[in-house]
């Protein structure tokens, strides 16, 4: 190769690298959270099941009884009960997440586990019991922090299991997020039938999430409701990764909710605060969850807040709103 050809090839290479640098700089400037993000430093708090007893996530599997491994209790609240929910809102929660299942007599019971043996003094599946049967159970029966030597919450949960209708009535102007625990279209249809009876203004304050099939059943009946599932979130994020560099928010990301750990968020255009601003403009809530493992964890201790991006103005997922608000 002649000297002149080598010079021309070298110049073309540098020109190409220069163009790439300019494009990269333009993408950075256009998607810089530091330059364009709001980030007023006022996170919103989503109280997961109200104020709950927490537990270590190490070694947790789908069938792990988490009530048998809670941290030593420093409060007496039981998740998914009205006292726990009232305490969460009083402590500063902006939204409440509750777990819902359909009972044998077609009621919308607020309870997490599909079976009763872990937390209560009952047996069998929630969907095999009537609401009256469930309300006779002690919801604090199975909680222990010392391998079963003591059960400090036993006897505190009898008669506390609420229905979704009771929760909605108890907090008439509050934001609620309903988690359909069973990915069953029939249960989604039952929830949709109840939600359809609510006034339009009240329905605006209620979101639904869960399995793909159950959430789809709700969205089909109530297309205007805020709904999310793994499929909905994946569709949104895949499309945003492809086009978000332009600032465009795809239709799949509008009027929904995104639950994201930081490890995923860091991949998104404009993360963190510009991304939150873009989604807020599209009427979508961004909820940051803690943890890097397979399970979503809450920001439950003051020390956990060190992991929150500076200036974060989206939502934070927490089981202990009372502990982190101060």
From TrEMBL:
<protein>
    <submittedName>
        <fullName>Glycerophosphoryl diester phosphodiesterase</fullName>
    </submittedName>
</protein>
<keyword id="KW-0812">Transmembrane</keyword>
<dbReference type="InterPro" id="IPR017946">
    <property type="entry name" value="PLC-like_Pdiesterase_TIM-brl"/>
</dbReference>
<dbReference type="GO" id="GO:0006629">
    <property type="term" value="P:lipid metabolic process"/>
</dbReference>
<dbReference type="Pfam" id="PF03009">
    <property type="entry name" value="GDPD"/>
</dbReference>
<feature type="transmembrane region" description="Helical">
    <location>
        <begin position="12"/>
        <end position="30"/>
    </location>
</feature>
<dbReference type="GO" id="GO:0008081">
    <property type="term" value="F:phosphoric diester hydrolase activity"/>
</dbReference>
<feature type="domain" description="GP-PDE">
    <location>
        <begin position="43"/>
        <end position="326"/>
    </location>
</feature>
<dbReference type="InterPro" id="IPR030395">
    <property type="entry name" value="GP_PDE_dom"/>
</dbReference>
<keyword id="KW-1133">Transmembrane helix</keyword>
<keyword id="KW-0472">Membrane</keyword>
